[in-house]
Design a protein that fits this description.
Layout (H helix, E strand, L loop, with lengths): L6 E2 L17 E10 L2 E9 L5 E3 L2 E3 L6 E2 L11 H6 L3 E10 L2 E10 L2 E9 L6 E5 L5 E6 L8 E7 L8 E6 L6 E7 L10 E4 L4 E3 L2 E12 L2 E11 L7 E5 L9 H4 L7 E8 L4 E8 L3 E8 H10 L1 E2 L3
The chain binds beta-D-mannopyranose.
């Protein structure tokens, strides 16, 4: 049997609703980052109203997290954010750039889903900056590096007309985005044939930017969400050096195969370590948080040695 490139943490799931000191039903799709030698996790949590908020948890080892007494981000009740976050805030991602942590998240309202951008330096104070997409857009990850003075993001428009593809866009100021281009599209009769979408914030390696993304396959009993990898050129992230043909993670553990939404592994964050490994975090069945470890070299190799066409 082919060996899995990701070793699941022996004590998964690492976070469930029982670990949260206030009433929530699901804890999943968390952004994770290392800040001052501490791992910070921002998980999405479902309230009993069915709407989502974002919590905060801290860990010394990246696996054992303690959830803070209060949520980190709940829907705003004023300004333009109040209008566009009424139905909840979901699926955050964190980008560490210029000493600042940029947080992108899905803002839901009667107008659809769009992406909001907030910023923090200490994970105590958070400031909302702007809504950076129209409806309908999800899964925005910002590269933790500027290219020719420009911020660069990957995103995934939500459309019944075009295929659900990973796109790239550029911005001089984080507010105005453009020069958009499709990069990685679903491939027919392939594990990601229905949708591709950005997952974790891209990770810099010597060979290129590693993009851990999600792909969706439709079956007679619902969709299966898996994770895959692609490698982007170090200096020009619109250039794809390879998209691995094989997935790297699929729902297998009982809490990934069954739960609120069965057969889902979905990532919003991964943390590279100094020893060449990466901790990958994923929501299991839209209900719990899980973690695993892989070697960055192995993931890079998979992109380069057995690629499929990006578009
Ligand atoms: C996607 C998003 C994710 C979720 C996934 C599986 O469209 O809503 O938040 O984890 O579906 O249900």
């Amino acid at each position: 049997m082919k060996k899995s490139l990701i070793s699941r943490y022996f004590d998964n799931p690492i976070l469930t609703k029982d670990d949260v000191p206030y009433p929530v039903e699901m804890v999943y799709n968390a952004a994770v980052v290392k800040h001052n030698d501490e791992y910070i996790m921002l998980p999405r949590m479902h309230l009993r109203s069915g709407r989502s908020i974002i919590g905060i948890a801290r860990s010394q080892d990246g696996f054992n997290f303690k959830v803070h007494d209060e949520p980190f981000l709940t829907p705003s009740s004023d300004s333009i954010f109040g209008e566009y976050e009424k139905f909840g805030v979901e699926d955050p991602r964190i980008c560490h750039i210029d000493g600042e942590y940029l947080i992108t998240y899905s803002a839901y309202s009667r107008h659809g889903v769009r992406i909001a951008l907030a910023s923090t330096r200490d994970f105590i104070h958070i400031e909302r900056i702007a809504l950076i997409s129209q409806a309908d857009m999800r899964n925005v990850v910002i590269f933790p590096h500027k290219f020719n003075g420009q911020y660069v993001r990957l995103d995934r428009p939500h459309s019944e007309i075009s295929p659900w593809t990973i796109w790239i866009s550029y911005s001089p100021d984080l507010i105005h985005w453009g020069r958009s281009k499709a990069l990685i599209a679903p491939v027919s009769y392939h594990w990601d044939q229905m949708k591709t979408g950005p997952g974790a914030t891209p990770i810099k390696t010597q060979a290129g930017w590693l993009n851990i993304y999600h792909g969706v396959y439709p079956t007679m009993s619902g969709s299966v969400y898996r994770l895959g990898v692609a490698l982007h050129d170090l200096n020009d992230p619109s250039k794809i050096l390879g998209v691995a043909d094989d997935w790297i993670l699929q729902p297998e553990d009982p809490w990934e195969v069954s739960g609120y939404v069965p057969n889902v592994v979905f990532t919003c964050g991964a943390v590279p370590e100094d020893d060449g490994t990466v901790k990958i975090y994923w929501g299991g069945a839209d209900q719990v948080m899980c973690a695993g470890t892989a070697r960055l070299d192995d993931l890079v190799k998979l992109c380069l040695e057995h690629p499929r066409k990006p578009l």
